[in-house]
Amino acid sequence: MNIASFLAPSRATGLGLVLSAGLLASPAAAQGFDLVSAVPSDYFMVTGDRSNPERAFLDAHWSGVWDALVDSGIGDDLMDLMAEQAEPGMLDMVMGTVEACGEMCRGVNWDALDGDVVYAQRLNPLDLTGGMVGTQDHLWLFEVAEDKAEATFTELAGFANGMLGMVGGMAGFPLELKRVEEGGATSMVLELSDLDPDAPDYGFGITRHGSTIFLSIGNDMRGEVIALLSGAEGATSIAMSPRFQAAFAQLPAPEDGFSYVDMGNLHLQIAGMMGEVRGLIAAEMGDPEAEAAEGGMVSEEAMIAGMINHAMDLVLEGLTLMEYKATVSHTEGYSVHSNSISVLSPNAKGNRFFPLLGTSRPVEDFTGKLPATTTGYSVSGGMDMGGMYDFALGLIGDFGPMGQMALGQWEMIQEESGFDLRKDVLGWIDGETVSVDFELDGQPQWVTRMAVKDEAMAAEKMGMVLGMAPMMLEMALEENPMVGMLGISIDPTRDERFEGFTEIGIAMAGQSILCGVRDGAMVFASSGDAIAHCQTVASKGADNITTNERMRATALFPGESDGSVSAASYTDHRGTASALADGLQGIAMMGGMVTMAIEEPEAKAMVTELMRMVGNFGPVLRAMDFYESSSSLSTFDGRAWHTRSVTHYAGPNTPAPAPAARTARTPSVVGRPPRGPPPHPRLAGGLSSVDRW
Description:
Layout (H helix, E strand, L loop, with lengths): L2 H4 L14 H4 L20 E5 L6 H17 L1 H12 L4 H16 L11 E7 L12 E8 L5 H23 L6 E5 L2 E7 H4 L7 E7 L2 E7 L3 H9 L11 H8 L7 E6 H23 L2 H6 L6 H20 L2 E11 L2 E10 L9 H4 L16 E7 L4 H13 L2 H18 L3 H6 L2 E12 L2 E10 L2 H25 L8 E5 L9 E5 L4 E8 L2 E5 L2 H11 L10 H6 L10 E8 L3 H14 L1 H5 L5 H16 L1 H6 L3 E10 L3 E10 L44
Antiparallel strand pairs: 1-2, 1-8, 2-3, 3-7, 4-5, 5-6, 6-7, 8-9, 9-10, 10-20, 11-12, 11-18, 12-13, 13-17, 14-15, 15-16, 16-17, 18-19, 19-20
Helix pairs in contact: 5-6, 10-12, 14-15, 20-22
């Protein structure tokens, strides 16, 4: 990516003073998120989103979901329930508040904010002596058309004043924004210190600088942002950070949006907060190191203080494992793509948390193991299980005498039971996992394969577990006779191709699971034919997934430049929302059985009504059945994970499922006058698609 396109200056906001003249010449300047250059350098997280006409089909889909929600009548049903349960006059007060809020919302042209949006966040140091319990700074920046900026700012200020006035009226004291002119910008602010001189330095503000409008919640950050918007000398933005620039230099241009997390900044901010906590703990509970140096017994309180300090040390060390993560997204047709990079710190191998992430293993030629009729898959290279176990033991042992005692108890338990976790489990598990769903002779099948280092050991341990299963089932049956309805059976398979395998039958589900050890892996499958077909595919005796045209068009397969694949997946979402809707309506139909055990009439009526409402939510879920599939592919180069992902959606002209009949409310409240839906924001497609209320 050309970083110049990301940091291109804005003529409207004057950010050109911040950046070099070389960036002005960038031919891709229209693709840049100018607003990111107004975020101070010490924020740990920043995200951006912009309106994209290519995503109009998603707006249409989510608009259909909203229409289905309105048609379901759930809003009216909830209001009716509130009317039945609320104190007299309470519902009228709630409805009056809702209508007043709606009226104030209609006074703002929300479409004016339908451009580039950037949000950023940072943590503030604790000030335990001054009453600060820890706060966060939140910053939203909007780029507004020049001819609409002043009017939009006035409308937003009026909306905020109206909401504050309503809250103040309920609380019994006035709340109102005050006007502040500073650095060529106009702000409407509310500071807690204006209400109470002893209150923390915290507040809310709406500020306009040229065509940029920003909202701020937290400590007084307006001056920092205004300085960046004005191009003040010495003002530094997160966009100037070497880590930020290195991240986006490795990614495509952020056409739809981006996100960035700076772990260095986050570490510094959390370390500052913990520093205050350490001082308080030492003052209140004692310092174990100081007490030990004096030659006396360490008090129990000081010992606990030492454990808390150690826990904080671990948190801080964990935060230094990663350097940063960045993601960008774009839309092509009816698909949304994203690319991300997650980078380990330069000294990550010396970090005790390294075994949890840094030992990611590659998956070799996974596409060659998946049948041509695959409908979904998930593959992972796994981690160094022994290293993770050593990490866990070391973590516990570092917690002083109590940690050492816990490790001793763990060793005793293993000796008495004759079980050694490292030898009996971790020693033979490899970690690589491949799961696949596919069709065979028109029937759905599935296979999950978990690689092992020692087949004999794996077969022995699996046999031990399966041998204990009948006794465990008997115990479960004694506790809950309903377990017998499942009809679980565990028998050696009759399939001669898989001698030594076990078949677990579940009569109620009409399914069985075939499991055993074969070809260097523990295998679980829907049938012997499923396993045999996957074996044939792996040996190149049958076509693999790369010959499937639909998969080639929708799934993400590794390319020559991708490197070692650490994980990959594909999920077919077609019909999922409708299946969930059917499940909800099935639950609603069983409502009578659910309420039979409820003796209290009012509670029974309430549950009955809620079950009916659950059934009416089914059409809303069906309206969400526009997801087609999603796929991801991650590679690891020893220092960074590079991930590509894509979500495919149905086109806007795809026929929607027929709406199900709505179940009417009980007659006791049918006589209420009908109430239309309240005003609403249609939050379709993210921050950039807020319609007018």
